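Appendix C reproduces, verbatim, an entry submitted by the partner laboratory led by Prof. M.T., so that reviewers can inspect both the input and the predicted structure.
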Amino acid sequence: MIAYVDVSGLRIMENTPFLTRDRNTLVPNEVAKGAWDPKSLHGPVVIGLLDFVIE
C-alpha cells in the first residue's frame, strides 16, 4: 500500500544560509529557528557555529 501525503502547504527549503553576516555579528534567518521555541536555534545551526569557531 502506498501512502500519499499532501505537501502543498509545506515550505520547501531553499539553498540559503542559516545565518547572514552583519559586520561582526551572525544573524539567524527564519529557517534557523527552533521547532519548539522561535527564540532558539536548531541543533545543526548551533553545531555549524561551533565548527566555524573551531576552524
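DSSP finds one helix and two strands in the chain. Additional entries are available on request from the coordinating office.
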